[in-house]
Amino acid sequence: MTNEQFRSVVEQYERLVYTICYQLVQDHQEAQNLTQETFLSAYTHIDRCDPANLKPWIARIATNKAKDHLKSAYLRRVECMPVPDMEPALTLESSPDDIYLVKEGEKAIQDQIYQLNEPYLNVAVLFFLEEKNVDEIARALHRPKKTVQTQIYRAKIILQNKLREGT
Amino acid sequence: MTEYFNRDGHISDAGFSALISGGADELKRLELAEHLSFCDDCVLRYSQLLCEDTLITPPHPITESILKRVKNRVRVLFFNRYVTAAAAACIAMVLWVTGVLGMQSIPTENDRFSLVNSAQKITQSTVKFSESVSDSVSKIFRSIENFDWKEVLKNEKK
Ligand SMILES: [Zn+2]
Q: Which one, out of A43, A98, B36, B153, has a CA that is 20 to 30 A from the CA of A7?
C-alpha cells in the first residue's frame, strides 16, 4: 500500500475510529492516542485485510485498542483486591450438620449463578455447575480463552459479593 | 435494569444504545469492548450503527500526525533491516577474508568433533584476522614514526 492510499484510508475512517475509541474510553485525549495506535496497527497488518471488509476490520482494531486500555485501567484499580476463594468446604470429617450447611450454601451459590447476566451467566454455569475447563468453555461459547478466564474471575467476585450481601 | 447482552451472549439493542449515548459505566464499557474485540457480528453491527451523522470529529486534527508516525515506523523498520543486513555482510566478510568459508577440508566422520574443530578454526581465524588488522595498523604507525622528517624539512628549505 502506498502512502497516498494509506492517507485516503486514514481520511475515510479517522472519525469512525475516533468515535469508537471515544465511546468506549470516554476521554478525548485517550481516544486521540488510541486512534493513532489503531491506524499504526492497521498500516502494519493491512495486507491481511480483505478490502471489502475494511470498515469492520478497522473498527475491530479500534475496539481491541480500547479494550486493552480499559482493561489495564480496570486491573490497576482492582489489583489490591483479594482473590476470591470459592473452594467447597466439604471435608471427610464434616458432620451431617456441616454437610447440610454446605449443601444449603451450594444451593445459594447455584441460585446466584442463575441470576447472573451475560457475559457471565453462560461462563459461570459451564465453569461452576458443569465443571468444564477454560478450553472447553472457550470452544463452546466461541470466546477467546483469555476473555473466558477474565469472565470467570469477575463472575467469582460478583458471586462472592452477592453471597456476602445475602448473609 | 436493562441488559447490555442478550441471553445468547451478543450485545443487545440496549447495550449498543448505552454505548452510543455514553450511558455505560466503565466496567460495562470494558465488557462491551471485550465482546466487540472477538465478535464479528457485533462489530459489524456497531460499525453500521455509527452512520455519518453520529460520528464525532476529533477535537485536534489527527491525519498528519498518524502519517508522520507511520513514516517514522517505516524508517525504523528499514534501518533495523539495514543494520541486520550490514552485520551479516560484515560477518561474511570476516569469514571470507579469514578463509573460514572454505571448510570442505574439515573431517566429517565425527560430527561433534568436526563441530568443535570448526568452532576452534573460526576462533583462530578471527584472532588471526584481528591480529593481521592490528599488524597493519601498527605497521602504518611504525612507518610514520620512522619517517625521516628531517629529510622533508631539508627539502622544504631548498
Ligand atoms: Zn456478538
A: B36
CB A84 within 8 A of CB A109: no
How long a stretch of residues is chain B?
Answer: 158
How far, in Å, CA of A164 to CA of B140, rounded? Answer: 85
| CA torsion angle A140 A146 A152 A155 (round to 10) | -110
Stated length of chain A: 167
Enter the pTM of the model: 0.67
A residues 96-135 closer than 8 Å to B (CB)? 117-119, 121-122
Helix axes B40-49, B26-36, angle to 10 degrees: 110
Task: Determine the number of helices (DSSP H) and then strands (DSSP E) in chain A.
Answer: 7, 0
Residues A58-112 have pLDDT tens digits of 999 999 999 999 999 888 877 655 555 555 455 556 666 666 666 677 788 888 9
- Exposed/middle/buried for B65, CB within 10 Å: 0-12, 13-18, 19+? middle
Cβ neighbours of residue A92 closer than 8 Å, sequence gap 6 or more: none
- Which residue is associated with the grid cell 489490591? A80
Residues around ion ligand 1, judged by CB within 5 A, are: B 10, 39, 41-42
Q: Which residues contact B135 (CB under 8 A, 6 or more apart)?
A: none
